[in-house]
Amino acid sequence: MALMITDECINCDVCEPECPNGAISPGEEIYVIDPNLCTECVGHYDEPQCQQVCPVDCIPLDPEREESRDELMEKYHIITAA
C-alpha cells in the first residue's frame, strides 16, 4: 500500500526530506504523498521513514492503494532505474 497523510498533519516539514523517493510534497493545506512514488521505503529501509519522524502519527496506509511487498519492490526498481 502507498501511504497517505491525513488532515491531522501540522505541516511540521519533517517528513518531506526523509522520503528517499521524493514522494512527499507540500499540498494546498497539508503535505501530500504521490502514491506513484511511494514504496513505503521498500528497497531503501525496513520501515517507512516518514512514519518514523512524524510527531502526530498522521501517515497511515492508504486503504485505496493496496500493494504487496513484491509490487512495492517492483515500483522501487522502476523508480530507481530512471
From TrEMBL:
Classification via Gene3D superfamilies: 3.30.70.20
Keyword 4Fe-4S part of the UniProt annotation: yes
Keyword entries, A-Z: 4Fe-4S, Iron, Iron-sulfur, Metal-binding
InterPro entries named in the record: 4Fe4S_Fe-S-bd (IPR017896), 4Fe4S_Fe_S_CS (IPR017900), PSI_iron-sulfur_center (IPR050157), YfhL-like (IPR047927)
Signal peptide: none
Keyword 4Fe-4S among record annotations: yes
Descriptive protein name: YfhL family 4Fe-4S dicluster ferredoxin
